[in-house]
Amino acid sequence: MNKLLKYPNIWLITGLFCTVAFVDIFAQATNKPSSCANSDFSLGDFTNWVGHTSIYNKATTPQSTINNNSPGYAYYYTAGIVPGRQTIITTATPDPFTCGNVLTLPPGEKQCVRLGNGGQGPWGNGVGWQIDYLDYTFSITPSNSLLIYKYAVVLQNPSPTGLKHTKAIRPRFIVTIKDASGKLIDPVCGMKEDFSDSTVFGYRNCSEKDATALGGINGGDAGDFVYRAWTTVGVDLRKFIGQNITIGFETWDCGAGGHFGYAYLMAKCDSLGIKSSACSDNGSVKLTAPDGFAYKWLP
Prior knowledge:
- The chain is mainly β.
- It has one helix at about 210-215, and strands spanning about 5, 10-15, 20, 30, 50-55, 75-80, 85-90, 110-115, 130-140, 145-160, 170-180, 190-195, 205, 225-235, 245-250, 260-270, 275, 285-290.
- The strands form 4 sheets. A 6-stranded antiparallel sheet has the order 6-5-9-15-11-12, with no helix packed on it. Strands 7-8-16-10-14-13 form a 6-stranded antiparallel sheet. The chain has a 3-stranded antiparallel sheet with strand order 1-2-3, with no helix packed on it.
- The longest helix has 6 residues, at about 210-215.
């Protein structure tokens, strides 16, 4: 059940796990420091993050414990950060595989991570059946019960004239939010999975020709690219105060070995609430609201 929380001239509508807030038109979302240590990679390294890398092909051993979404494929699963597969980004440059429409840093931020890789050069080292992971675990308190994550995604879309690529082996991007027992906190807000397909909502197409013209060097087989511009998501975790929660990110190359997928990402924690500043001379009040939600004035 949703419930209504009343503030002066503000209604917050809160669901079980996701929150949508409707506030004054003067409300602003701010890029505050994270209250979860280094979740935003502000230290310039992977402190408090856990990385894994994997590779899969049609071998039979060794098998891992990772869920196998591609029948007949075996996974090799190794702990640790691998440069080039989990990469700190500190410079905002246009990504050519988005036709230059997406910068490698989110607006207003100084650092993020590229998870996975793809094209040759500064965007990766090609394609090789790679799957890359990053996890961040933190204890929920009233001061960090709002989880905000930001991401942008690049997925190569296999050519329709080549080998048939089922959904199970297409490049993909996955986000999971799990409790201490490893269960998703919610079937909707606890997991997101996008795979390379030009018809997926929120994704746009960039042709291989246009990407190449902007300096992108395709490290795999022929195919255009689909991408999602920087997106911010907010998740209400107040129900889990006193518990540990893990947010995990995954990027997958294609199961046939010829097409790539990668993402830029970061996460932040904050308290859930709307703050007001002193009244101005004209009688208006400036409200500061958390990033990652939709806002609307209600009379």
